[in-house]
Amino acid sequence: MQGRITAQAYSFDQQFKPYQKDEFLMAFFKDQNVNSSLKLLSASGQWTTLGSKVTKIEATVVPCTQISMSFFDRLYSEGIVRETGTIVKCYDDYYDDILISDELRKVLLLEDSDHYDLFTQLDREEFLFCLFKHFCIGGTLCQYEDVVDPYLETTKAFYKDLVSVQKNPETKEIRIISTVFRVSAYDANGLCYPSSKRHQQTFAYLIVDPCKRHVNILYHCFGGSLFTN
Question: Which residue blocks in the chain are alpha helix, DSSP H?
Fold first, then answer.
């Protein structure tokens, strides 16, 4: 994913109302500041900016309720990850151009995996799970980790930076106040963002903090990495 992932932050000055998400997202993508600075990778693998007139937005609300990494503790109890953190290997397989060489990627990708039901469909829709899955799968040129810790640590760091929380002063309970969308944008020629080609590892998440009126964008485009000196 190195060289093909980026995060950006924007601010807005209007009240955000989740039920008006379509209007909010269209206004965001049509804003001149966004249009001239929102990063994406071109077909040749060069960083550029959106720069096109967006005519349509598709946005899926991504559930974001998890506040603890204990969400992933179940990986240790079903022969996917050993107590030491070592990921259990398996025979090589491929799914959607993605190499599967261990039980972790099997449980993330293959519905016929023995342990696929370790996470329910609702679990798999959670933003925390989506981030973990993206980092575990990686890009086209990916040196997989032998232990799960780097994936968990990276997921936690990104989640903490992207998502905003609030503590109830009475109950002391922490809750997430951000709204997360997985977005796609179209121009006159069709799909233009996050890429003209769809892939499960090509994504743009737009995370809205309604209190601070901030928007975070996490973007990745699946493909060959850029080599730099």
Answer: 21-30, 32-37, 103-109, 121-125, 127-137, 149-162
Q: How many CA atoms lie within 13 A of 99 on its CB side?
A: 12
| Contact call for residues 49 and 39 (beta carbons, < 8 A) | yes
The Cα 11–Cα 217 span in angstroms is 11
CB 147 within 8 A of CB 87: yes
Q: Mind listing the pLDDT tens digit for each residue in 41-63? A: 998 889 999 988 999 999 999 99
Helix (H) or strand (E) holding 220: strand 214-220
User: Sorting pLDDT into bands at 50, 70 and 90, what band is 113?
Assistant: confident
| Cα 213-186-155 angle, rounded to 5 deg | 50
- Number of other CB atoms surrounding residue 214 within 10 Å: 15
* Sequence letter at residue 1: M
pTM of the model: 0.92
- SS3 string, 142-167, reads CCCCCECHHHHHHHHHHHHHHCCEEE
